[in-house]
Design goal:
Blueprint: H1 4-33, H2 42-64, H3 69-99, H4 101-106, H5 108-112, H6 116-136, E1 169-174, E2 178-181, E3 191-194, E4 199-203, H7 204-212, E5 216-218
Antiparallel strand pairs: 1-4, 1-5, 2-3
Amino acid sequence: MASNSDLGSADFETLASTSDVELLKRAWRNEKAAPEILPYEAALIERAKGQIELVEENIEDYVENGIDPLVVSLYQMDLDRTQFLLRSYLRVRLLKIEKFMFHNLKSEEAESRLSEQEKVFAKSCADDLAKHFEESVLLKLPENYQSVLKQSLISEVDDMVPQPHLDTFVVCRSKNFVSLNLYEEGESPETVEMERGDLYFIRYKIVKGAIESGKIDLI
């Protein structure tokens, strides 16, 4: 049987991990609502994976030692919730990588937001898609129209590359007082002041920096 001190230690570990679970939930929620891929939460993800492994080991020990099944089921519920958040967070990012693979690889800012594994995945997807297009369509077209990235070779930009729409409106909540510029550089200056807890329906690119700094959460 596990001693009371062992159970107390496990309870403390679960309590200590609560903040990381909430951070993971925030990262998942922001990633789902943002039109572009957000910076990869490397440290948080590694901590979450470590906590999942620890709780899995604790649950196995509790089952073997005959701990009350109700207690075990509560720990299992917490474990299932954390695993769901982690898997869903990573899955949402993979969907965005697939959707904007060429953009993510040609934009230094976007590529810097990917983990090393995600960069490998993005490059593999882009190479496979380009090869498929070339073999099935592009090589059968006139030479000026054989680019995967441009409508024709005379195009000045990569106009065949899907990009995130940063003008998309999002719903967000302020975590602290924030003053934001409503317009881009060169336009008429106007700001919006958001108090703690305020809800706003606003263009994503206006709150982009505040989201990445943790001052604002997407809903």
